[in-house]
Amino acid sequence: MTDESYNAIKNNFITALRIIYREGLSDAFAHLSARSNDGYEMMFMPRKSPALVQGEELFFVDFEKPVPQSSLHQAIYKTRPDVKSVFHFHSPAVILLSVLGQTIRPMHNYSAIFFDGVPLYKGSGQVESPARAGEMAKLLGGAKALMLRGHGAVVVGQSIREVCMLALFLEESARLQAEAMRLGAPMFMEREEAERIAKRTFKPTSVERAWDHFAAKCAD
Amino acid sequence: MTDESYNAIKNNFITALRIIYREGLSDAFAHLSARSNDGYEMMFMPRKSPALVQGEELFFVDFEKPVPQSSLHQAIYKTRPDVKSVFHFHSPAVILLSVLGQTIRPMHNYSAIFFDGVPLYKGSGQVESPARAGEMAKLLGGAKALMLRGHGAVVVGQSIREVCMLALFLEESARLQAEAMRLGAPMFMEREEAERIAKRTFKPTSVERAWDHFAAKCAD
Amino acid sequence: MTDESYNAIKNNFITALRIIYREGLSDAFAHLSARSNDGYEMMFMPRKSPALVQGEELFFVDFEKPVPQSSLHQAIYKTRPDVKSVFHFHSPAVILLSVLGQTIRPMHNYSAIFFDGVPLYKGSGQVESPARAGEMAKLLGGAKALMLRGHGAVVVGQSIREVCMLALFLEESARLQAEAMRLGAPMFMEREEAERIAKRTFKPTSVERAWDHFAAKCAD
Amino acid sequence: MTDESYNAIKNNFITALRIIYREGLSDAFAHLSARSNDGYEMMFMPRKSPALVQGEELFFVDFEKPVPQSSLHQAIYKTRPDVKSVFHFHSPAVILLSVLGQTIRPMHNYSAIFFDGVPLYKGSGQVESPARAGEMAKLLGGAKALMLRGHGAVVVGQSIREVCMLALFLEESARLQAEAMRLGAPMFMEREEAERIAKRTFKPTSVERAWDHFAAKCAD
Predict the structure, then answer these.
(1) Which strands form B85-89's sheet, in the order they lie side by side?
(2) Which chains touch C (3 or more CB pairs under 8 A)?
(3) Distance (Å, rounded) from C-alpha A58 to C-alpha A72?
(4) How many CB pairs under 8 A join B and C?
(5) In this complex, do C92 and B209 lie within 8 Å of one another by their Cβ atoms?
(6) pLDDT of chain C along its 220 residues, tens only?
C-alpha cells in the first residue's frame, strides 16, 4: 500500500466514524474495519468512541490474531472474499426491530437496497467468542447486512464509504418499518421490484453523492 | 431576465435548498426548479446534495432536453402553465404515509392548505422515464402536491418561496396525520371548512413571514 | 411605567419569544402580550416570527383598538383582571391532542399544574374575529390554559415568565399524554392530588429556576 | 480528602450534570450527590439547573441536616453503605413508563444491566418529606435504580461516573421498552441471561469509555 492510498483509507475511516456518530447510529460503541490492499489483514480501531478515535490510532491486525471486538470482523473477511469493509454498530431502530423478532423488508427506495434480505441473529448478548462470530458470519451468508437481537447490526460492502451509507440506509429503513407497523399494513415490495429499484438507488454515483452530503455535515 | 432578477431567483433557490435540508426534509437527494421569466425553460440544479449546491452551479434547461432528474419537473411545467416552481423531495413522514396508502387530509390550520387533495402515485421506484413523469404530472392535475409511494413528494406553486413553504407544510401535515392515526379517530375537516381556513393561513404575507423565519434559521 | 421597569418587561418579552422558539413550540407564528402597569393596555408584537422580533419593535395597544392577531389577547385581558400576560402559540403535541378531541389531564408533576382543567375550543380555523375571541375567552373562564382545535393553545398568567413556563409545561404534558395513550391506560391523578402537587411544582421559585435554565439555553 | 481528590470529584460532578442535561435527561430540575471520602456526608448542589451549577457552588451536607431536595439522597446513603453516588432526575421515557405502571425489563445489552429489577414507587408527587424518602430508599433495596410514578428516577452506584452512565442506560432502556410495547410482544431476557450480558456491558472499562464519549460531547 502506498502512503497516499493509506492516507486516503485512513481519512475515509475517520470520516465514516464521525458520520455514524453524527447521524445518531452509535453511542460510545461501534467498530469499523477495512481490508488491507493485500487482502490478508484489516485496518482496525482501538476501543474508543467513534466520535473520538484519531487517524494515528488506527492499526492493522491479521485475521487470526485475537484483538478485542475483532472476531466478528475477522470471521466475515475470511468467509466473504468480496467484502472490503465491515461496520458494526448499535443503532436504535435496528435494536427496536430486533427485539420484536422483525427484520428489514423493502418498502421504499432505500429499504429496497436490502432486497436480498437481512438475516436476524437471535442469540442475545455480545459477540463474545470467535465461535459465535463464526455463526454470525455464516448466517450473514451473501447478504449486505445482519441484525443482532437486542444488540445492533453489521453491514458489509465494497468500501468504507459504501458500508457507511449502508449503515445509514439500514437504520432509516428500520425506523420507517417500525413506524409503518404501528399504523397499519404497509405495502411491502416484491424482491424483483426491490432489486430493480436498488439498481437505481444504490449506484456508486449515489453512494458518492450521499457520502459528500454526510461528510460535509460532519465538517460543520 | 435582468441580472438583478436573475440574482434574486438564484438567492431564493439556494436558500430554499438550505431550508429544506435544515428542516430535515431532504438527505442528499432533492431537486428544485424555477420557470424562467420567458416561460419556456427552467432554472435547475446539478446532481448534488441540496446542502451543498452553490449559486454558480445552477443552469437553465429547456422543457425537451433530457437532463438527469429533470423529467418530472419538465412534465409538470408543460401541463401546468400556472406553475412557476417545482420541488421534489424525500421527506420521512410523507414516505411513511405513502407506504400505508394514505394521503394528506386536512385536520389543522396547515393541512387545510391542501384542501383540494393530494393524489398518491402508487407505482414504486424513482421517476425513471419521461413516460412515468408524464403519468405523475397527469395524476397531479390541478393540485398543489403529489405523493409518490415509498419515494417522496412533489409540490408546485407560484414561486420558489411558496413551494418551499408548501414542502414544509406538507411534511408537517403528514407527521401530524401519522401521529393522530396512531391515537384514535382524528377530526378531519370538510373541504369547504379547509378552503375557508386556507384563505387565511396561506396568504402571500403568511408565506413571506414563514420564509423570513426559516431563512433566518438557516443563516444561524 | 418607569424606563427601568419598561426595559425589564421588554427583555423578558423578547427572551420568552426566543425560548418558545428554541424549545420547538413555535414556527413563524406565535403571539405574546403583557398587560401594562396601568392595566388598560398591553405590550404587543408585530406580525413577525418570535425568533426575529426585536425589543424596539414592541408597542402598546389598548383593549379596544383592532390590531392584527390581537383580539384574543384583548378579550382575555378584559374578562380576566387577574391576568398579566397571555401567550398564544401553535405547538405540535397540543395540536395533536386537539384534533383527537382530547385535552390535558394531570398524570405527572408538570401536568398536575393544570389541575383546574384545560378547556378545548372545538371550532376550527384561526381566531378570525373579536366575536370568536370573546367565545374563546369565555370558554377559558378561570383556567390557566385553553386548547384550540387544529390550531394551538393560549396560556395566561401573572407574568411573562410564568406564561412562558406554562407554555412549556402544557406542551410537555400534551406529549406525555399522547405517548401514554398509545401504550395503554395511564394512571391519571385526581384533582385534589394534582392540586397538592401543583403547589410544590408551580411555585414562584420553581418558575424562576426553570426560567433561568431556558433563558441560558437561548443565550448559548 | 486531599485538594486533588476534591477537585477530581468536583470536576466529575459538574461534568455529570452537563451530560445529563445535554442528553435530554433533565430540564431545570435534577440532583446529584456524592458520598465524601470519610463516608458520613455528601457533596451536594444548590437548587439550580444542572446546566448552570458551577463547581464553586457545591457544598457538603451531613446525613441528618435537612437541606432542600436532599432527603432522598440522605435516606439512601444511610441504608446503602455500598453506595457512593446518587442521581435523581426527571427523564421523559422513564416518566412515560411510570405513569403506565410499567418498569424496566431487560431486552437489550443495556437494559440487561438492570437484571436485578427496577422497583416502581407508586405514590405521586415529589419526595416531600424524610418519611417518604425513607419509604423510597426501602423500596430501592439493593437495586441500581428506582422509578417514581409521574416524577422520574433515582440511580445509585459506586461513583459519579457510574451513576451518570446508569442514568443514560435507564432512560435509553425505557425508551426502547415503550417503543417495543407499541409494536408487539418484545423478546424479554431471563434474569440469568441478562446478568451474564451485564457482566460484559457494564464493566468499569465500558463505563470509562462511555464517560469519555459523553464528556467529549459536552465539551463541544
Answers:
(1) B59-62, B41-44, B30-35, B85-89, B152-157, B145-148, B120-121
(2) B, D
(3) 18
(4) 77
(5) no
(6) 577 788 999 999 999 999 999 999 998 999 999 999 888 899 999 999 999 999 999 999 999 998 888 999 999 999 999 999 999 999 999 999 999 999 999 999 999 999 999 999 999 888 888 999 999 999 999 999 999 999 999 999 999 999 999 999 999 999 999 999 999 999 999 999 999 999 999 999 999 999 999 999 988 7
